[in-house]
Amino acid sequence: MPTSMKIDFVSDVSCPWCIIGLKALEQAVEKIGDDIAVDVHFQPFELNPKMVPEGQDLFDHMAQKYGASTEQSERTREMIRARGEDLGFTFRMDKLERIYNTFDAHRLLHYAALEGCQSKLKHALFGAYFTNGENPGDHDILIRLAEQIGLNVTRAREILASDAFAKDVRKQQNFYQEQGIQAVPAVIINGRHLIKGGQPVEVFEQALRQIAEE
Length: 214
Hints:
Layout: E1 3-11, H1 16-32, E2 36-44, E3 56-57, H2 58-66, H3 70-87, E4 98-99, H4 103-114, H5 118-131, H6 139-149, H7 153-160, H8 166-178, E5 186-189, E6 193-196, H9 201-213
Helix pairs in contact: 1-3, 1-9, 4-5, 5-6, 6-7
C-alpha cells in the first residue's frame, strides 16, 4: 500500500520560484513512484495584494520592493531561467515586462479545485505569465485558460464578473499568514512538515521519503 500524503502548496502564479518548486516537487514524486500517493491542494498567496489592475513595470517593481538594481534583477532572471530549463519549464524573460494583480486568478483556481482540475489551471496560469508574458489578472485570458482545461466557461465568466469565492480566498490567505507563511512557495505536507522555497528535486525527494518512513 502506498503512503498517502496531503500536500498544501502555498503559492502565487506570478512567483517564478513557485513554478520551479512545483516542477521539482512533481519530479520528486515521479522518482519515488508507487511508494507514495500525493493529494496536492494549491493554496492562495498574493505577493502583491495591492497591485493595480494594469500592473507595474517589473524592473521598477523589483527596485521598489527589494531595492534591486537592474543588473541584480537581470542576474536573478538568468538564474531563474536556467533553473526552469533544467526542470523542463520555459521562462521567456524577454516577454516578462510587468507584474500583475493575481486575486482573480486565485478565485478561479478556487473554482477549479471544486471541479477537480485545479492543477491543470495552475500550470496553465504559470505558462500564460512566465512563458507567454500574459496578464494572469486579465479576465479574457482567464476565460481562455478556463476553456482550454475544460472548465465551464459560462460559470467562469459569472465568477469573474462577481465577487464569488473572494471571501474563501481571503480566508485561506489569512490562515496561512497566521501560520507564519510570509514567502512562497511554502510546501506543507500532512499539515505538519514545511519545506520552504523552490528547492531542488533531490531535497523534495529526500523529504517525502523521510516523511513516508515516519
